[in-house]
Design brief:
Layout: E1 8-12, E2 17-21, E3 25-30, E4 38-40, E5 51-56, E6 61-66, E7 73-79, E8 82-89, E9 97-117, H1 120-123, E10 128-133, E11 139-145, E12 148-154, E13 159-161, E14 164-172, E15 176-185, H2 196-212, H3 221-233, E16 265-266, H4 267-278, H5 283-297, E17 307-308, E18 319-320, E19 334-335, H6 347-360, H7 367-383, H8 402-422, H9 428-445, E20 447-448, E21 453-454, H10 481-494, E22 495-496, E23 499-500, H11 520-533, H12 536-547, E24 559-561, E25 566-568, H13 574-596
Antiparallel strand pairs: 1-2, 2-3, 3-4, 3-5, 5-9, 6-7, 7-8, 8-9, 9-14, 9-15, 10-11, 11-12, 12-15, 13-14, 16-17, 18-19, 20-21, 22-23, 24-25
Length: about 600
Amino acid sequence: MALPIEDYALLGDTGTCALVGLDGSIDWLCLPRFDSQACFAALLGTPDHGRWLIGPVDEARSSRRYIGNTFVLETTHTTDSGVVKVIDVMPIGDGRADVVRRIEGVEGTVAMRHEWVVRFGYGKIWPWVTRREDDEGRPIISAIAGPDMLIVRGSRLPKAEDGRHVDEFEVGAGDTLTFSTTWFKSHHPVPPMLDVDKRLTETTELSERWAERCSYEGPYRDHVVRSLLVLRMLTHGGTGGIVAAPTTSLPETFGGSRNWDYRFCWLRDASLTLEALLTTGYDDEARLWRDWLLRAIAGDPKDLQIMYAVDGARDLPERELDHLPGYADSRPVRIGNGAVSQRQTDVLGEVLIALELGRTVGLVEDRHSWSLQRSLINELCQSWQKPDNGLWEIRGPRRRFTHSRVMVWAAFDRAITGVERQGLSGDVDHWRKVRDDVRAEILEHGFDRERNSFVQHYDTREVDASLLVIPLVGFLPGDDPRVLGTIEAVEKELIRDGLVMRYRTETGVDGLQGDEHPFVACSFWLVSAYAKAGRVDDAHALMRRLVKLCNDVGLLSEEYDPHRQRMVGNFPQAFSHLALVGAAFGLSQVDRDSDNDPGMTTSGGRAFTTNE
């Protein structure tokens, strides 16, 4: 069985990502792209579904860290006989697809095991594996199946044994052994050997320079920087597409069926990621993503999808992989995502908020980019009243979700701002009327006056964590009594063991079986809502608890099981990390305001308790 999710660390080259466990096993890797088929898929099965292990033979005490502001991972294994370090990296910036692993003996002698088990097609396809020489006469092992080929090079190569390649050897103090795995198209020549020292240095310098561009100087800065680095790793350096996570089918409940493929570019998640980057000084990334957006959504506005492939492709059929038992026996394992055909009216609001923020920091609209946005807004004028599947991709009946309507309001609001402040063209009088109509409808049908709370959708009295964004997008001030009442309702009904659920699954609104755990991003939204409401002490208390949910290398999953103290869901999750950045930024703003106004309220309502 795979390790606990929190025991994995991320490697990445801005084209794809790998997950490497604390035991030294790379259990997940899709090559050459995030949404390519996996060649190491033990994460969703067993070692026989593919992995690359370099770890100690004997029981070890293992610790790890990223070197500086990079994704160069250093793992230290201490056994009774000695200490070794393993450096893992995916070099950035040269267009290749390599994973490099270097063993360094520190003291004594440590017995190490090397397993290289390649299975293409998400663990299903056994490749043809041969030992041969590359064009420079160096020994390699190659694994080929159809269009894909992997080769492994190294100081000593493993030997064939029952469908895998294995080796055991001792590493003494001062010893260094280096290995690399490289993917390439099988009809191409074998790529030349990497200059590992040079590429390691270049990758480190590139990452450090990128991190130095962060303009954020507020509280929780280290967590913000690491989260931004995660978001960078989830952004394809060639296309600009931003994936929601590098994994598929890590379950929302262990043993359950809520297992989804997140290796695609949701317009919502990408827009929110862009906001996180823009608020922290990364303007160039806005241009790259906007260019991706224009390519992806080009065409008839009626054909707008909620998600796309990394290159903007639209066809993402969902299917199940019966040959994989799933993480913690959580079936089915899915690839593709059926939500691609859903209607989610909120998406355009997130997109236009991000693009408006881009304009405020100097992102100039050209004729084509604004024309496309204007067409989308004009289409929304005709369709905004239709029920939809909502933010959470409900697979039950479509509803008139309050959050969706709020984001419709935000879409018109930001489009109007573009005309009024940026001098862009548009039917602003009509847009204002529609914006006012949307607002009036929300206040009439999306608000329960008896409970003094907004509701999940117009046909229920239930609340939803997405209502916490109402003050964050400017629909109402954070201290409006209706917002305060909504926060109180979320506290009473959606907090489980101190963390926030998306909604109450027992209502059956999502049309799915089973339960789920608290959704990490929702708890960060509550931090932001507390800050907007003036409950600064409560906001900081919750924030301190949430950053402790990060694993030892600063990564967050989609959900968290507070009983087992386990990460749950796809990992690492862009939504969790971008919400962390947003919460920290909101706290930084309110802290500055309170410094200027010593009489400002710092707490109120039900105080948030922590386990500090």
